[in-house]
Design goal:
The chain is an alpha+beta fold and 303 residues long. The protein has two domains: 153 residues, Probable inorganic polyphosphate/atp-NAD kinase, domain 1 (Rossmann fold), CATH 3.40.50.10330; 132 residues, Probable inorganic polyphosphate/atp-NAD kinase, domain 2 (Tumour Suppressor Smad4, Sandwich). It has seven helices and 20 strands. The strands form four sheets. The chain has a six-stranded parallel beta sheet, with helices on both faces. Strands 9-8-19-16-11-12 form a six-stranded antiparallel beta sheet, with no helix packed on it. The model has no long low-confidence stretch (mean pLDDT 88).
């Protein structure tokens, strides 16, 4: 039995107003199809500005999953409009609500998207209704951290958890793997990435590219100050502790590029999140083709 989706939660950043034609094309493409579009509350002003003959229904990702969506989870999909950053925003509620995500690419690179640009919205909507999407389960990295006053906070990321120095001096980070010392890092920062994140920040810091199906964590230093520092791959069943000392203005903690309020020093616990991201792709999507296309592999650049 084919899996199909006929209820779409549309998420985009407010900057999508610069590409209103994209919203307009989506509305027109849905005409006559048995699909229901629910728009993120932040898009209400943009939709009103289009003066389309629609009666949009809105949802708020800061609230619990609406009862209507809960009853239709099997047929509900989050559709993000934008670049990879937009998709990273959308997964925060999609994972919590146990919904798959499909990224329609309006950005520059789009590693996480499988449609966009010259791909027509109508073709994508038809594929969703006809069960022509495949689901990839992507692992997430979870992080527990001390809060500024007291207590513990928790967050997760699809790409990476990052620690950065904030003062002029280098950071010193002790990394324990399953309670055993791996290294005392001296660097400008340290990343713990998922396979999905291997083509993000980690790659720019010299980390290896890992296919999404791999079950590993990547530990990648940022501008390491020791000659022997190299990226390390670990099984994602490992539990990690990163320990930073007070002083030097503390460290900045970021999850998928978003700053997190925390104590600035202390012990962070890193582990594989109990949930996964269900990433929807068009049938026939190839991770190897994606690498060739995005990184221009296989091309003879000599002209």
């Amino acid at each position: 039995m084919k899996k199909f989706w006929d209820t779409l939660l549309i998420y985009a950043r407010p900057s999508i107003t610069l590409k209103l034609d994209g919203l307009e094309r989506l509305v027109f493409a849905s005409k006559g199809l048995p699909v229901r579009l629910l728009w993120h509350q932040s898009l209400s002003e943009a939709l009103n500005g289009l003066e389309l003959d629609v009666d949009p229904h809105f949802f708020d990702s800061n609230e619990p999953c609406p009862e209507f969506i809960q009853k239709r989870k099997e047929n509900t999909l989050v559709l993000t409009l934008g670049g990879d950053g937009t998709l990273l925003d959308g997964i925060q509620f999609a994972v919590e609500w146990d919904l798959p995500v499909f990224g329609f690419h309006f950005g520059r690179l789009g590693f996480l998207s499988s449609a966009g640009g010259t791909v027509d919205f109508s073709a994508v909507l038809t594929a969703m209704l006809n069960g022509q999407l495949e689901i990839e389960n992507r692992s997430l990295v979870a992080c527990k951290f001390p809060l500024p006053m007291k207590g513990t906070g928790m967050g997760f990321a699809l790409n990476e958890m990052a620690l950065h120095r904030q003062g002029a001096g280098i950071m010193r980070i002790t990394c324990l793997v399953n309670e055993e010392l791996l290294n005392n890092y001296q660097a400008d920062g340290l990343l713990v990435s998922t396979p999905t994140g291997s083509t993000a920040y980690s790659m720019s810091c010299g980390g290896p590219i890992v296919l999404p199906q791999s079950k590993v964590f990547l530990i990648t230093p940022v501008a390491g100050h020791q000659l022997g520092i190299r990226p390390v791959l670990l099984p994602d069943t490992s539990s990690l502790q990163l320990i930073t000392a007070a002083g030097g203005g503390g460290a900045q903690l970021m999850l998928d590029g978003k700053p997190i309020q925390w104590a600035g020093y202390g012990t962070l616990e890193i582990y594989r999140h109990e949930k996964v991201l269900a990433l929807a792709r068009l049938k026939g999507f190839s991770d190897l083709h994606n690498l060739r296309a995005k990184l221009l592999w296989g091309l003879d650049v000599r002209g």
